[in-house]
UniProtKB/TrEMBL annotation:
GO molecular function: quercetin 3-O-glucosyltransferase activity; quercetin 7-O-glucosyltransferase activity
Alphabetical keyword list: Flavonoid biosynthesis, Glycosyltransferase, Transferase
Residue spans crossing the bilayer: none
GO biological process, one term: flavonoid biosynthetic process
Protein known as: Uncharacterized protein
Record-stated family: Belongs to the UDP-glycosyltransferase family.
Gene3D superfamilies for this protein: Glycogen Phosphorylase B (3.40.50.2000)
Amino acid sequence: METKEDIHVLMVAFSSQGHINPMLRLANRLITSKNNLHVTLATTELARHRFLSSSSTTTASAHSVVKIRFEFFSDGLPLDYDRKSNLDHFMDSLAAAGPANLSAIIQRNHHVEFNCVITNPFIPWAADVSAAHGIPCAMLWIQPCALYSIYYRFYNILNPFPTVKNPDLPADLPGLPLLKTEDLPSFVLPSNHFSVFPKLFDGMFQTMGKFKWVLVNSFEELEKDVIGSMSEIHRVMPVGPLVPPELLGEDRADDAVGVVDMWKSDDDCIGWLDQQGACSVIYVSFGSIVVLSEEQMQSVATGLKKSARPRSGPSE
C-alpha cells in the first residue's frame, strides 16, 4: 500500500535499446536504495512492439523483478514506418507528438504525484513537459562525463575547437588532457555531415538550464577532474557505471535488472567465437540509429581487413 511518503520517479526513454537499458539499471539502483520509491518508465509504442517481437525472456524480468511500471506513447508515426532511413522526419515527429502524449500520461496517472522526471538526450522536450506540470527534471547522460563536457562546451561556444580554416586545432578543455582532432567525436568536427544529431545537440546543450540535475554514466574515481569542471557550470551527479555486471567482473545472475531486448538475438556466431583466441576478435557496432554511406562502410571494412584479425560473415 502506497503512502504520502512514497517517492515516484517518471523516466522517459528514447526507444532505443542502448538508451532504455541504462535507464533500467538506474531505476534498479533507485528502487533498491529506498523501499518507498517507485519508478514508471515511459517510452514509445515502437519500443513495446519490438519488446513483443523479440520474445525476450529478459523483458519479463525487467517487469517483474525490478517492479517498474511501463507506459507507452505514440511518436506520431505508424509502427511500420522506416524510422532509420528517415531519421530527420522521425525526430521531428517525435518532438511534435511526444510532449502532448507524455503530458497525457502524467495526467492519466493523476493518483500519482511524480517527484521527479528523468529523461535522456534525444528527448529534451520532456523538460518542458515536466516544467508545465511543476515537476523537477533531470537528464541522464548515458555516456561518460568527458563526452558530455566536449559537447556542452562546443555547442555553447565556451572553448576553441577545430574549424574549417584550422582543422588541426587541438581542444584544450578543463579537466581533460589536450585533445587532438582524432581524439574528438566526429559531431564536433568541421568535416561532420550528419544532419540530425548536430541539430538536436545544438538545441539541447544550449537549453541545459531547464534541467535541475545532469546524471552522468560515470563515477568520481574515473573522471574526477572533468566531473569537477562541469559541476562548476551546473549540478552534475555521477550515477554509474550503468553497465552489464559481467563488464565489472560480477556474476550476471546477480543482475536484478536483466536486459530489455528489442530484436531477436542471433546466436549463430557463438560457435565461431568459441573457436577464436582470447581477445582476438574485433566487435563493431554503430547502434540502431546511424545509417552509414557506402563510402563509410567501405572505409570501415578496409580498416577491419587490414587489422588482420579473425573475421566471420558475408565477406568470407
